[in-house]
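[step 3/7] inverse_fold.run input=structure_tokens len=444
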């Protein structure tokens, strides 16, 4: 690679999960702290960061096609093109391959090493392309700049990595082993986010409820202890957490839903399948019964809790009858929302080489039926909310004049008209249910 002037403007594009969104924000902050500016649009950026996701289909193909497109579409008059940095989980999994195949990529940096991004960009500009996919323990967080920017809702990564090794999943390989960030660092980061305007913080982790630490009195605590301390920040009005794993759920976290008013009545608890045989083959370490029993315990403490989940259809060997067990589970739970995916073989995971890979047409059909079941549940949940008056955190203005968009405590999108401002919590009566949102009326 020839040396070029160091890039002055950048654009970060994040794919995939909320943790990638968090990482994307932190990379932007790093580049700004290094003297770069965010480009007004991607076409004008001198550095483009592709913050990639490897969890499902064609992730790698998409990265290569993006790299190709950027080279062609964004080429400048003098023949130069923006520098490309590939970050995220595809970078972790395919780093050397990307470097070998894509000469226009200057930097490949994994999710645990991106604190080195500015130095790597400078080196690439000087003609030294580089890959860093090391996984040092938490080194990156200490090296990141102080948080200075936030909208009314913010993400805060508290835990990373996964030791569960579900047989379909690439995360334990791309994000590494489970680690918890220290309590004090998290309280400090939350404080800065709140000072910058955050009114709601969502605590993030691949297994967020596996977070452990020591509180201000050096007592060992779980996520409930962290939530309790964050709830003491007066300007912080709401706390959420995602994604939880059934195996790591504790009585203390369940109880916290009754004890901490700022902890929102919402639980994202992926189940993946409604068949015990499939769950075992997935190495999920819970059964349908234990999952339902766990939800019952939540509902005792927090009767109106909204439940969300993740599902995979077409796991190798999944029979029609086993798939129908998943539909039965969906009807039994009454999900307020859920994410569903066609099984995608991930290179290097045990399930990728299992017998009984399912025909794509069968997967399509199952996905459609599953989504219909989820939509029925979501509509029923929304209809049951009509007539309730609740607090809405205003996140942005709507398309129509005087219209506002925000979220209910149950994470429903709510739109309403009236006197409000971004970042305010207002009282809204839910008057009409849609499939994906609620219409509300501002209550004086
Ligand atoms: N194929 C399809 N879906 C997957 N997920 C994880 N790995 C795969 C895969 N190989 C889904 C799971 C997980 C969510 C984040 O992505 O449902 O909970
Ligand atoms: Fe992947 Fe399973 Fe870990 Fe979730 S719990 S990140 S699905 S291995």
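[step 3/7] decode complete -> sequence:
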């Amino acid at each position: 690679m020839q040396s070029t002037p160091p890039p002055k403007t950048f654009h970060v594009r994040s794919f995939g999960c909320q943790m990638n969104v968090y990482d994307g924000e932190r990379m932007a902050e790093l580049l700004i702290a290094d003297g770069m500016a965010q480009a007004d649009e991607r076409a004008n950026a001198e550095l483009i960061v592709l913050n990639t996701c490897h969890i499902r289909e064609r992730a790698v193909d998409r990265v290569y096609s993006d790299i190709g497109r950027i080279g062609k579409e964004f080429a400048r008059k003098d023949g130069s093109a923006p520098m490309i940095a590939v970050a995220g989980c595809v970078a972790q999994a395919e780093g050397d391959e990307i470097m070998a195949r894509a000469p226009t990529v200057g930097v490949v940096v994994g999710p645990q090493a991106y604190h080195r991004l500015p130095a790597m960009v400078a080196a690439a500009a000087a003609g030294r392309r580089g890959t860093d996919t090391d996984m040092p323990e938490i080194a990156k967080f200490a090296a990141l700049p102080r948080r200075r920017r936030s909208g009314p809702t913010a993400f805060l990564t508290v835990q990373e990595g996964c030791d569960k090794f579900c047989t379909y999943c690439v995360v334990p390989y791309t994000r590494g082993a489970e680690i918890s960030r220290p309590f004090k660092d998290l309280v400090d980061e939350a404080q800065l986010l709140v000072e910058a305007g955050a009114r709601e913080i969502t605590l993030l982790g691949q297994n967020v409820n596996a977070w452990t630490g020591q509180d201000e009195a050096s007592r060992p605590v779980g996520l409930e202890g962290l939530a309790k301390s964050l709830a003491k920040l007066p300007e912080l009005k709401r706390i959420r957490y995602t994604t939880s794993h059934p195996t790591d759920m504790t009585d203390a976290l369940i109880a916290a839903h009754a004890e901490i008013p700022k902890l929102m009545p919402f639980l994202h608890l992926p189940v993946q399948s409604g068949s015990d045989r499939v769950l075992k083959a997935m190495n999920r370490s819970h059964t349908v019964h234990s999952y339902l029993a766990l939800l019952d315990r939540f509902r005792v403490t927090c009767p109106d809790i909204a439940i969300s989940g993740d599902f995979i259809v077409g796991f190798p060997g999944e029979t029609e009858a086993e798939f129908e067990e998943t539909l039965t589970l969906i009807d039994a739970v009454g999900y307020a929302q859920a994410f569903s995916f066609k099984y995608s073989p991930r290179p290097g995971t045990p399930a990728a080489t299992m017998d009984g890979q399912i025909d794509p047409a069968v997967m399509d059909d199952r996905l459609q039926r599953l989504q219909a079941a989820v939509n029925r549940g979501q509509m029923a949940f929304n209809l049951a909310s009509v007539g309730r008056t609740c607090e809405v955190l205003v996140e942005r203005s709507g398309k129509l004049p005087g219209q506002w968009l925000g979220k209910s405590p149950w994470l429903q999108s709510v739109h309403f008209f009236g006197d409000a401002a971004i970042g305010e919590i207002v009282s809204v009566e839910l008057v009409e249910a849609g499939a994906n949102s609620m219409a509300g009326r501002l209550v004086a």
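[step 4/7] annotate
Residues 389-442 form a domain with the OB fold (Dihydrolipoamide Acetyltransferase, E2P) fold (CATH 2.40.50.140).
Residues 162, 164-166, 169, 171-172, 206-207, 245 surround iron/sulfur cluster (ligand 2) (CB under 6 Å).
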